[in-house]
Amino acid sequence: MKPKEKFDFFHDERVRSVFYQALIAAAVGWFVWSLVSNTAQNLEARGMHTGFGFLNVAAGFDSSFKLISNEAGVGTYGRIFFIGALNTLYVSALAIILSTMLGFFIGVMRLSSNWLVSKVALAYVEIFRNTPLLIQIIFWYIGVFSLLPRVKSSIDLSGGAEVLLLNNRGLYMPWPIPGDLLWLTGVAASIAVIAVVAFRRWAKNRQDKTGQTYPTFIVSAALLILLPGVVYFMTGMPLDWDIPKLEGFNFVGGASLPPSFMALLFALTIYHASYTAEMVRAGILSVNKGQHEAAKSLGLSNNRSMSLVIIPQAMPAIIPPMISNCMTTIKNSSLAIAIGYPDLVSLFMQTSLNQAGYAIELVCMTMAFYMVVSLIISWLMNIYNKRVQLVER
């Protein structure tokens, strides 16, 4: 009979593990509490107020570019925080989408058999990846958009229609004014999207079972265009446009994007696309060359081979570094402070800090915003990463 082991608190692996973890957690908690309490005491000794009550105080300034309405002296510091957060998310989301699309294109060009095409893509990657982003932002702002023609000599990007105008004050464009029945077009568009998703799943299952492909792009495009289009015309085209018009020294009406926004968007897109291109190139090279030969032996064209065989197998290697690239894009948008774009750092951590004080609260809220957004991006991308992982049979 095996002798019964005696319980030893200090040598039991499970108890020891829990004990030391609890001890470390208590030490960290004590350190945080001491830091917070000492900071609060020092601020109180200097007559400085603490807390988040200032968020309900009216701010005496407004943002030059905003996605929601606000009025100086009426809108609160809390509203300024949301304005800055929305401005940051707006430019960052566009930069992530555009840099991903451009990066995929450049990455495929890097592997082209055409010598000139591959070298042009290589030059793009090496130039923009090895140049500081801050310098690129300043270059686009001072060297490009600030040198555009004046308002009266605006560049008409609409081919003479004078509805899309570019000058040194920004890009002016029409703004939609929805009618009463426009929601029906939105419902039709939603139904079209659901139908396209269901159709593409059916086509994929059909291809997996029979090996036969179906022209999903043509059918999907027809659904997305025709169904909402028919509803839009049947309801009397309930959509008007506010066209920018030149009055005095500037355009009135429509919508506009300031030069700082466009400079930041261009710089973030081009800079991070160079990193995406290298991720795509490395992911494609990680696929065994036998897959290329097998696709050719089946009679697939180069485009079909890339889209159906190579890219799906390369995605598990592309997604993990792309997660970091997307998170970095969000954080690098804070460099907008160098050219005056009213992002969260410029509006909330600089202007609000100068007027209201509360440095610790403002800095902590700004840091928390970037941390939460980065964690959400990481969570969503990791979900997609699990879906594209190859499953061994």
Structure description:
The protein is of the alpha+beta class and 393 residues long. It contains 11 helices and 8 strands. Among the domains are: 77-146 and 255-388, MetI-like fold; 176-240. It is 64% helix and 7% strand. The strands form 3 sheets. The chain has a 4-stranded antiparallel beta sheet with strand order 1-2-3-8. Strands 4-5 form a two-stranded antiparallel sheet. The chain has a two-stranded antiparallel sheet with strand order 6-7. Helix 2 packs antiparallel against helix 3, helix 2 (77-110) packs across helix 7 and helix 8 packs across helix 9. The model has no long low-confidence stretch (mean pLDDT 84).
What does this entry show, briefly?
It is built from 11 helices and 8 strands. The chain has helices at about 15-45, 75-110, 115-130, 135-145, 180-210, 215-235, 260-285, 290-295, 300-330, 345-355, 360-390; strands spanning about 155, 165, 170-175, 175-180, 240, 245, 250, 255.
